[in-house]
C-alpha cells in the first residue's frame, strides 16, 4: 500500500505542480488527453493533474525500474491503470491503440503523446496521427495538454529527481465532429495539426515540423 500512495505526494513536493485549465476536462465519459512529452515524469504529472482516473500508455521499463523509486513508480503506474507497452514488439503501436479504444469505450480518460516519444531538446515535434484517428473512430473529444518543467525534474539519461517547478495546462477540447471532410487520412492529419497547435500554445515550445528522433533506438516502433 505504501508504494501506491507515496509517489503522488512525493511528486507534488518535488515539482510544486501547478495545474491550469482543469475545467476543460469533462468529469465523466470518454476523453483523450493529448500532451507534449518532455520526460518520463510526464507519466506521473498528467494523471495527477487530470484529477480523475486516467489510463496511460507507458513503456514496459517503467514497471521494472530498480530500487525504491522504481517500486514506487511501478505501484503508481498500476494504481492509475497504465498499460505497459513493450516497444520491442513489432505490433506494439497497433496493440496500444486497441487498448486505448477499449478504455475509451468504457468511458475512461485516456492520455497519449502525439509526438510518439520524448523530445530530445525541449522543442515540440510534429504529431503522429494516432490520437486523431482514435478520436475520429471513437467519437471521443481531445483535450490538449501542455507540460513544462518535467525535463528539469528529471533530466535526460538521469534516474535522479531534482526539485523543479512543473506546470500542466489544459485547453478547450477539440471535437472529432469538426473533421468530416475527406478520407480518414486527410481528416486525421488536419485534426493532428490543430492538436499540435493547441499544445504549442499551452506549452510555449518552439515547433519543429518533423517527427521527433527521440531518445529511443531507430528500430523501436513509436507509440503514436
Write a structural description:
With 224 residues, this protein is α/β, with parallel strands linked by helices. The chain has a single domain, classed as Glycerol-3-phosphate (1)-acyltransferase (3-Layer(aba) Sandwich), CATH 3.40.1130. The protein has 7 helices and 9 strands. A 7-stranded mixed sheet has the order 1-8-7-2-5-3-4, with helices on both faces. Strands 6-9 form a two-stranded parallel sheet. Strand 3, helix 3 and strand 4 form a beta-alpha-beta unit. Helix 5 crosses helix 7. It is globular. One of its GO terms (biological process) is phosphatidic acid biosynthetic process. This is 1-acyl-sn-glycerol-3-phosphate acyltransferase. GO terms for molecular function: 1-acylglycerol-3-phosphate O-acyltransferase activity. InterPro entries: Plipid/glycerol_acylTrfase.
- What's the CATH architecture? 3-Layer(aba) Sandwich
Residue share in helix? 25-40%
- Across the major sheet, the strand order is 1-8-7-2-5-3-4
Beta percentage is 15-25%
CATH class: Alpha Beta
Please count the beta strands (DSSP E, at least 2 residues each): 9
pLDDT under 50 segments (min length 5)?
A: 1-5, 217-224
Mean pLDDT: 84
Question: Order of SSEs, N→C?
Answer: HEEHEHEHEEHEHEHE
Remind me, CATH topology? Glycerol-3-phosphate (1)-acyltransferase
User: Describe the biggest sheet?
Assistant: 7 strands, mixed
Count of separate DSSP helical elements: 7
For the termini, the CA-CA separation is 32 Å
In total, how many domains does the architecture comprise? Answer: 1
Indicate the radius of gyration in whole angstroms.
16 Å
Classify the secondary structure makeup into a structural class. Answer: alpha/beta
Pfam families: Acyltransferase (PF01553)
GO molecular function, one term: 1-acylglycerol-3-phosphate O-acyltransferase activity
Protein name: 1-acyl-sn-glycerol-3-phosphate acyltransferase
Domain Phospholipid/glycerol acyltransferase: 31-150
